[in-house]
Amino acid sequence: MLLLAIDTSTSAITVAVRDDSGTRCAATVLDARGHTEHVTPLVERCLDEAGCTPADVTDVVVGTGPGPFTGLRVGIVTGLVFGHARGIPVHGVCSLDVLAAQARGLVQGDDLVVATDARRKEVYTARYAVEPAGVRRLTEPHVDRPADLPEDLRALPTAGRGPVLYPDLFPHAVDVLDVDAAVLAEVAAARIAAGEPMPVEPLYLRRPDALTTAERAQR
Q1: pLDDT digits over 96-145, tens only?
Q2: What is the pLDDT of residues 144-182, one digit of tens each?
């Protein structure tokens, strides 16, 4: 298997190429509003540095968010178009699951929370159990104002940019800010091997910031 991984759900535009032996190349650009400009060059760069071509890729995985509408859509559409052009499967992984996997080795305790920037003074969150074999999501991803979250949840070790944006509300920051496509590829490879369903269903959780003319007229 040669897996191309793409995620644009956070401030990072991140791409990786992985084969059965591990990551062959990974690259990331931090630009919260430049997903469209960076994702295709990163794909080309990773394939080139991995010594392969689009024809060599057997599977694609995309981070399905949650994330801001436009940025998240860029990565998902890029992955779907690549898979369609090549006639290969495209798999989806919740991006919060990847952040939790990145944070697992950095926390002490049974649970952690992932809180990422949802803009509009809100965060996307999910709670995870830390287990010997990995992390297990305990709650579905949702969007809230940080102050509206239960205090016991906010007191958990927290990965993502939530603690950077709201340090008083998430006092126990874990040094994991954005999705790493190499870890996305690792999570995806394990799920593919296990035969888990991996639908590509974007987790927008709310309507996009941009409205049509008709929608603006109705407000």
Answers
A1: 999 999 999 999 889 999 999 999 999 999 999 999 989 999 999 999 99
A2: 999 999 999 999 999 999 999 999 999 999 999 999 999
